[in-house]
Amino acid sequence: MLELLSSGLISVWLELSGVQIREQDAGELLIGSGIPGFVWDEKKMGGVDSPTNATLEEYLKALEAKGVRRENQGIWLQTTQGELLANHQGNIPRSAASITKVATSLAALSTWKLDHQFETLIAARGQVVGEVLEGDLVIVGGYDPLFVWEEAIALGNALNRLGIRRVTGNLVITGNFLMNGEDNGQKSGELLKQALNAQLWSAEITDTYNLMSRNAQKKLAAPATPKPQVAIAGQVLVSKEPPTETTPLIRHYSLPLVELLKLMNIHSSNTMAEILADALGGVQVVRKIAAEAAGVPPEQIQLINGSGLGEENRISPRAACGLFMAIQNYLRRDAAKPGNATAPLTLADLFPIAGTDGGTMEDRNIPAGSVVKTGTLWNVSALAGVLPTRDRGLVWFAILNGGGDDIWGFRDRQDQLLHQLLKQWGISPEPFPQITRNYPSNRELIEIGAPSRNELLWQRS
What we know:
Elements: H1 2-16, H2 23-31, H3 42-45, H4 50-65, E1 74-79, E2 84-88, E3 94-95, H5 100-111, E4 119-129, E5 132-142, H6 149-161, E6 166-167, E7 171-176, H7 185-196, H8 203-218, E8 231-232, E9 236-238, E10 247-253, H9 257-267, H10 270-280, H11 283-294, E11 301-302, E12 314-315, H12 317-335, E13 371-377, E14 380-388, E15 394-402, H13 407-425, E16 454-456
């Protein structure tokens, strides 16, 4: 059996992961120090790196000098090749805040394709006569986690392109439709009704429209975005089941999954994360998928939601690294699929890059080029991801701080620790292709409010 594994399955796995290795070495990896790109426990990794552990000890002493107890901290650092560099309570799950979104991201990638788009169906119950829909406008939601003002404005313009400007009946909301992240169907419907009719716009919607229009005009020969005019005379009604005898009008597609995950992680959107977790079947489904994909014991990932909001979301530092490495391995396997001619996607296509992105990277001094995820609660500060180095290659790390409310102090010392480690290991002279952003090839596809993501399904007879 071992011979079969060493000469076959493990070698194939390594090849898909982008690791070049002789067949006779595969069995050694299976029973030895670990498979590159996979997180093992400390016993299988052969102990820690003494210089790195010494740096970690200085870091912990500095925290203690500020009155923060070391037993409330968790840290794990390892190389892609499976060498454990430092470990402080790395197998103990602790409050990880928005590192939880890494688990949600992994579960989403394990369930849907990278280019998956959530669909919202717009239908008519009644007849279109001239510019008037004599009946109800029906919205069948499909868990789009980013259906915001821009998307609603583009949808209104799509209805206008069909020649519909008035609705005599009601706006019927069914399915899982969450406008601006509102989980209340009635509220979501009221917001959509307002957005579809420029005569009802608030200052916030007007500001959003003005920005959309300016961006459209920046394109060569592109006209300004029209103001939609879809006046709905009736009320907003929420229905558990889609109405019968409807005529499909428009199929609205969300941004592709890869772009949704990037926006969610850069801005650490709790709303988007929780919508995705619900779409996956709930938080326990997320937990199960993530733990299995990361190859860590399930007790090291304890979740109460998909966002990380709440101290009860607990992840071990080792598991946090495993989640990132599992995502990277998934992306490698996806790139190796036959017929995939696009540039391979990397972690940088899903998470913020230090020194490049805004959002949670603002006011941070994380070494440039690192791909990370931050996490913050009132008494928790977390940072995990991958640090590119000259001597150690890609170093996977997780720093989970707790036991104090000096969040900015935690953040500053996290950044300082990474810079100190980078000083030891050196700055890589060349960027690592494994963490270089390659997406997208079609800029229009990922624009929020892009008209092209509204497919017209109906035409006048």
